[in-house]
Amino acid sequence: MRTSHPRGSSSATGPNRLHRRLTVAGAAVAISALALTGCGNQKGQGNDETGSGSGSDGDVTIALLLPESKTTRYESLDKPNFEKYVAEANPDAKVEYRNANQDASQQQQQFEAAVTEGVDVIVLDPVDASAVASSLAKAEAKQIPVVSYDRFFEGADYYTSFDNKKIGNLQGQALLDGLKAKGVDPKSGPVWMVNGDPKDPNAADFKAGAEETLRSAGVDIAADHDTLDWNPDDARQWVEGQLQGGGQKPIAIYAANDGTAGGVLAATTKAKQDPVVTGQDAEVDGLQNILKGEQYATIYKSIPPQAEFAAKAATALAGGEEPKAATTYKDTPTDFVEAKVVTKDTIKDIVGDQIKASDICKGIEKKLCQDAGIE
Q1: Where are the domains of the chain?
Q2: For residue 352, what pLDDT is reported?
């Protein structure tokens, strides 16, 4: 795991901000307790259970703002797992969910609506991490803590994700392993990189890690492209254009995730080219492409632990407590989740957690799953 940035005495904006919020929250709790002692519980005569949140009715409300639905994980894994772990941490807590459909302006409106509604905590996976500053200022003014989920942004009270540069390293090594498996010298020809959305800070980390690993092996990265909105069609169109350019064809193409890898494969198949292609996220389409021998590898990221970290942090912050974290990243309390490379030989090892064998094997030759040991 990458070494995190230690808290420095001269750059403790995040921790100090959290301390101010928790101080105010504690003061509010104390004042409320005194008021109730003096006047009695006027809201619900005879009912002493006031709940564990900071809202007027004692309930806790957590806003979960996710960026898009093209990547299947958000709707099928992140949302339900987050809701599950919030319910376990605080059965009285309510999760208000909104998806921005890859629209930064829409997400800003959703964020500011949550602030206006007076939610207790906001958990944000930003469409554009560089555009959240003004919204954060409004949350700060209302003393609403904000959790940075999956994509880091400055000013959050807590952050959970995967070590994204390390994931890039894993992707780069997988590409080298794929070339070795084909008996191809990684220095024998050009490699192209189809990166993620330039607005996504994770994409920059993936790219940096992959480039580091590939360049250290002497690979010639001859061309690269940033895929707008992680759109597979954008990836496909760029690769098609490159293949029509008449230059030397690539021995491998790095794709930042399985969606863009699908776009890459559509272009290379049409052009009757067979470079090594890798991806990320272990989506069903990507796993099927691996079983069919079209894609060499993907990166498996277990979503439930990440959702659990975020849920525990959010409920702690809602209760005026500082979340427990294993490390820090850019002065922000942080928990990272480990990831691993998946190839045809190891797909069977990830079946049963968040991926079902029936989903992987649906619509493809039965023998492909049998040969891979997928039951």
Answers
A1: 13-156+305-336, 164-301
A2: 86
CA 354 – CA 331 distance, rounded (Å): 32
Give strand ranges (E) for 227-271: 252-255
What residues form DSSP beta bridges with 312?
none
Best CA proximity match to 214, nearest among 164, 259, 265, 179: 179
How many Å apart are CA 110 and CA 143, to the nearest integer?
17
Please check whether the two domains, 13-156+305-336 and 164-301, share a CATH topology.
yes
Q: What does the alpha-carbon distance between residue 116 and residue 125 come to, in Å, rounded to a whole number?
A: 19
Q: Tokens 């997400």 label which residue?
A: 107
Number of residues that this document lists for the chain: 375
Per-residue pLDDT tens over the stretch 73-125: 899 899 999 999 999 999 999 999 999 999 999 999 999 999 999 999 999 99
Crossing angle (nearest 10°) for helices 164-181 and 201-216:
40
Instruction: Specify whether the CB–CB gap between 207 and 168 falls below 8 A.
Output: yes
Confidence of residue 217 (pLDDT cuts 50, 70, 90): very high
Rg (Cα) of the chain, in Å, rounded? 23
Question: Which CATH superfamily includes the segment(s) 164-301?
Answer: Response regulator (3.40.50.2300)
Q: Tell me the residue type at 239.
A: V
In sign, the C-alpha dihedral spanning 127, 120, 152, 356 is negative
Rounded distance, CA 207 to CA 164, Å?
A: 9
Q: Which residue type, as a one-letter code, is found at position 228?
A: L
Structure tokens at 278: 């890798």
230 DSSP assignment: G
Pairing of strands 332-337, 146-149: unpaired
As a dihedral over the C-alpha atoms of residue 43, residue 48, residue 52, residue 54, rounded to 10 degrees, the angle is 30
pLDDT digits (tens, 9 = 90+) for 274-321: 999 999 999 999 999 999 999 999 999 999 999 999 999 999 999 999
Q: Can you tell me whether residue 81 is helix, strand or coil? A: helix
Question: Which amino acid is present at 243?
Answer: L
Report the topology of domain 13-156+305-336. Answer: Rossmann fold (3.40.50)
Look at the alpha carbons of 107, 110, 115, 121 in this order and tell me if their dihedral is positive or negative: negative
Cβ atoms of 255 and 289 closer than 8 Å: no
